Amino acid sequence: MVGTLITFEGIDGSGKSTQLRLLANFLRSQGGEVLVTREPGGTPVGLRLRAALLDAQEQVDPLTELLVFAADRAQHVRRVLRPALEVGQIVLSDRYADATKAYQGAGRGFSAELISEIVQLATEGLIPDLTLLFDLSVTESSARTRRRLAGRQKGDRLDSEDPEFHTRVREAYLGLAGKEPERFRIVTTKGSAEETHERVKEIVVPFLEARGQIVSREPAAAGSRQTQPL
Ligand code: TYD
User: Fold this and answer.
1) Rounded to whole angstroms, what are the CA distances from 172 to 96, 179, 184?
2) What is the mean pLDDT of residues 88-105?
3) Does the beta carbon of 134 lie inside 6 Å of ligand 1?
């Protein structure tokens, strides 16, 4: 049986991780076999790479950064993603290869050719079935990140990049989505998490139903809800 790989992408503070959790809970409630994972850090060795990569105190050279994200991905693809897909699971990954194209490509300035060679090497050609791009302006997402930093969660090295960096990353993501409209869906995250979750369900539920991965037990779209009889 072949599973489905859905990746969640977007700039820091775009709200993708919250949406991933909400969708995973919903799909499980519908009987879906869901695996939640992430990059960097989706494997035990990946967790150690993640700690090194995101350490706010560490000066990480951009080339090192590119190669370590790729190493994390190689481990993730071979040890987690492929085995889960082979047994037919619905895999939700918080970031994948598009993040390297956006952050290390547009953000750090590595050439598209080099990035695509390294992505190919690490992924062995594994392409997501669906990619949700959570989009929000850099001003709004930075405000969210600042609020998060003011709370319990610590910021990481990439959170603290300047707004121009995040603007380049956002534009690169939108450019990738424009080039592969079949694979990407852009989801605006203005408004409440619940409203965004409804939009996500409207995209994902029919997609998974068409692949035979879930049989919906409740209407996905607000618009398709039964109205009260008069
Ligand atoms: P993420 O776990 O999404 O951050 P958080 O949950 O703290 O919001 O990603 C961590 C950071 O790693 C994020 O700033 C994006 C960056 N990143 C890259 O630069 N390249 C990559 O290939 C990946 C997967 C992530």
Assistant:
1) 14, 11, 13
2) 98
3) no
Is 99's C-beta closer than 6 angstroms to any atom of ligand 1?
Answer: yes
Burial of 188 (0-12, 13-18, 19+ CB in 10 A): middle
**Taking the model in full, what pTM does it have?**
0.92
Pairing state of beta strands 90-94 and 34-38?
A: parallel
| pLDDT score at 57 | 81
CA of 40 to the centre of ligand 1 (A): 7
Q: Is 135 in the pocket of ligand 1 (CB under 6 A)?
A: no
pLDDT in tens, 13-36: 999 999 999 999 999 999 999 999
For ligand 1, the distance from its centroid to the CA atom of residue 218, given in whole angstroms, is: 33
Domains recognised in the chain with CATH numbers: 4-210 (3.40.50.300)
Atom of ligand 1 nearest to the CA of 158: 14
Map 138-197 to HEC letters: HHHHHHHHHHHHHCCCCCCCCCCCCHHHHHHHHHHHHHHHHHCCCCEEEEECCCCHHHHH
Mean pLDDT of the chain: 92
pLDDT value of position 225:
44
Cα–Cα distance measured from residue 13 to residue 204, given in angstroms and rounded to the nearest whole number: 22
Q: In the prediction, which pLDDT does 1 show? A: 57
Answer yes or no: is the C-beta of 132 below 6 A from any ligand 1 atom: no
What is the average per-residue pLDDT within 157-162? 80
Pairwise CA distance, residues 98 & 100, whole Å: 5
